[in-house]
Structures are given as structure tokens and as C-alpha cells.
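Just scan my protein:

. . .
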Amino acid sequence: MADALAVMLSFPPDNVAKLSPKDYDKEMGTYLKNLGKLQQAQWLKQIDKQNILELLNPSVNSIPYAATLVEQIKAMGKDKSRLDYLFDHTLIFFASFDPVQVRYLGEQWNQLLDWAMGKLRTAGIPDLSPIAGAMLRLDPTAGTFTTNHLKLLRACLYSGVPSQALPILDKNIYAFPTLPAKNVPEELLSEEHELSNGFITAKSSFTEKVQTEHVLEYHLLGAHIYIGQRNYTRARLFLEYLILTPSQQYAVSALQVEAYKKWVLVGLLAEGKAYPLPRTHDGPVMKSIRAIAKAYDALGDTFEKRDVRKFRAEMDVGAAIWHEDGNLRMVREAGDALLRYRVIDLQKTFAALPVSRVASHMEFTEDVTLQMLTDMIRGGSLNASITPGATSGEAVLRFHFTQSGPSSSMAQEDELEAQTKRIEDLVTFIRDADRRLQLTKEYVEHQKRAKRHGAGPDGDLADQMDLTWDAPVPGLDDGDEDIMAS
């Protein structure tokens, strides 16, 4: 048994810091072969009355530590005390493993992640931060989509802690696991990869096969979480991903329809009007989606006209529709938002006016109007103040106009810095995608054809773009607002 421990501790070598990626990969290959020769029983036996886990350092011996956990979990059956012991050590492993070593152990790492999520769910422990932490330790960008992204969201929603998915959700997806290009040398796992899709691939076992429905569900659940957090900007982005998902033969997914319904409602809540359709939407697909979601478009039109009575009537008539779609609460919130936007609209014309005038405009009693205005100001949804009067009607509502100052300047600087970081990340993602595209057989063949036909200097793809303008599909209002302007 001591010989087995010696094999487990034989990596990393003392000079590991001086090894080149190629040498590291060669050493790792030999090490994994030696570990593969160990019998299952050797992972289970104790040494000097100690579990092997106690003799391994998870941050230094990450591979044998993970392999020991997997083998012992399989052998423990339903022994609760032993499983609890292994669960504690699994959490220790997630917080300290060597990310480079684990790149060679995708299958076992994935098994541990699945087991730990199931254990947390069964035990009713509402803390999934170790799972998110492990995913970010392996891939700090969380930018290569895996089925674990979706599993984490499901687990957080099931446990009633959706906010714990935000460390993953807040990271933008820039790649999907793919097979390496043929006739191109594979990248070494030990290399310093700029992006994680260099080591999270379709062959790495860090994910099950990614299907289109996985991506759609991930973004829909993510939009749900952001809506609950009142982060409408991010919710809009996730819903747009769904709406713009390419499809064959103009097929429409039920998830896309659901996303569009929420797209309309989120626009009403966030901006007082339905968001304009994304400029790059597929006309026939969008026409089919809107044909199914007519009730929501009608609700949005009534909202934009600020017709409170008609909106409430449509709310009541379509109650069964909103309830069946799971959007009843959002529709009711939109009803409350309509009152708020009617008051905000007055700010475009008046600097101040008596509450009696507001009550007349809102078609409420003066007492009810005064209370509603007071609640809106306290809640931060209305930037105004009320000067008391002898009666409710004689009180005066005074709108406040936001002025630029030190605080707003700091906010602008923060936003500019964040925007700069997003652009820098985007440039990195595009550079990597362009590099990978140039390795594909299709790209090489395309370049050969382009050079044969003399299509622009060096066959530049930009010179072969279709610059014709497609007229909008009749009956669809594309709107004039650019989504990137928000």
C-alpha cells in the first residue's frame, strides 16, 4: 500500500515550476498511466490507520485526491457518516485544487461536482457557493458554456437561492465546447490559455454534450433570476439571446416565445414601453413568435397609451393566460408601474402642480393620490417632494430634476471603466474566435476559392459581404432604437 501512496505522490516533481508545457504534459501522461495501474482496493485501504485523503494535499496532489474521493464515494454505498466525511473533503478539494492538474481529470471532476450538488439538494442545504466557486476556480471567466452552468441555475432555483448563481450568470458566455480542428495539433492542457475553450472541449469530459435546448434554458432561467433581482438591463440581454437564437427552416421554440412575452413585460417595467425588436432578428421567426404572443403585444400597446382602465380590463380578461404562462405577477407589477409612469409623464409638462390636479389626471380620489405619491417618493421610484397643504388636494407635488455633481461624475467614470473592460474582453473573445475559425477546413477552402476568384485584396471576407438592404417584413414594427444605446 505504501507503494501505491508513493505513486500518488510522485507528481508534481520538484522542478515542476521549470517544466515547459510540453515537458509538463509528458510528465503528466506518464503519471496518469501509473495511476491507472492501481487497483480499486488501493484507493480504499488505510495507511497507518489513516485515510489516504489525510496523506494527500488537495492543492498539490489534486489528481490522486479527486480520484480517491470518486472511488471512495462509489464504495461507501449509503453509509451516512462516511459520506458526510467525504462530502466535507470534497468541499475542501473544490476550494483548493490545482486548476492546471484538474484539466487532465475532467470526468472525475465532473462526477464530484454532480455528486456534491445532489448531496446539497438532498440535505436541503441552501448554500451552493462551493459549486460556483469550484467552477470559477477551474475557469475564472466561466465563459465556455457547459451543462454544469445550467445544472447550477436549476439547483439554485430549486433551493430558493437564485442569487447564488450570479457569480456564474454575471460572466458572459463566449464559447462552446468543440472538437479540435482536424489536421491541427491539439493545444496542450498545461499551456497558459487566454480563454478556457482551449481546455474545456467536447473531448475533455468537463461537460455532457451541449444541446441547443440547454443554452436556451440557461438564458431563460438566467433572465428569470435577473428579473427577480430587478436587473432589467441584464434580463433584457439574456432574453435577446433567446429571441435571436438561429433556427432551421424558421422553426420557433416554445422557449423563444416565452422569452418574447417576458421581453415585452420587462420593457414596460424598465422603460414604460415595450423594448424595440433587436435589429438582427429573423423576420419570419419573429412574425411567428408575435402571432403566438398577441395578447402581450396588445397589453404593451395599452400600457404605452397610458390607458389605466383598459389596461386593468385586459389584465382581468387575460388573467388565465398570464397565470398559465407564469407571468401573472409581472403583469400585476406592470399595472402598478403604469400608474408610476403616468405621474412621471407629468414631469415633462409641469415642474409642480397641486395633488388635486394629479388626482384628476389619475382618476383617483385626492387622499388616495396623495398616499400613492408619498409611497412612490419613499420607494425611490419618483424623484419629487410634496409640500403639505390644508387638505390633501391642496398639497403640492414638486418634481426634482437630477443635476450633475461629484456623485454622478463618479458613477459615469465607473460606467466608463466597466464599458472599457467589456470592450477589452470582447476584443479578446473575437481574436480567439477568429484564430479558431482560421484553423477550420471550411475556412481554408473558402480562402482558396476567394483567391481563385480574386475577391478583394487577399480574399478579404469584408469585401464579400452582402451589402444589400432587406425591406422589413410587413406587419412588424422594428422600432428605431438601437439596443446597444441602452
Notes: The first strand starts at residue 352 and ends at 354. Residues 353-402 form one domain. The mean pLDDT is 87.
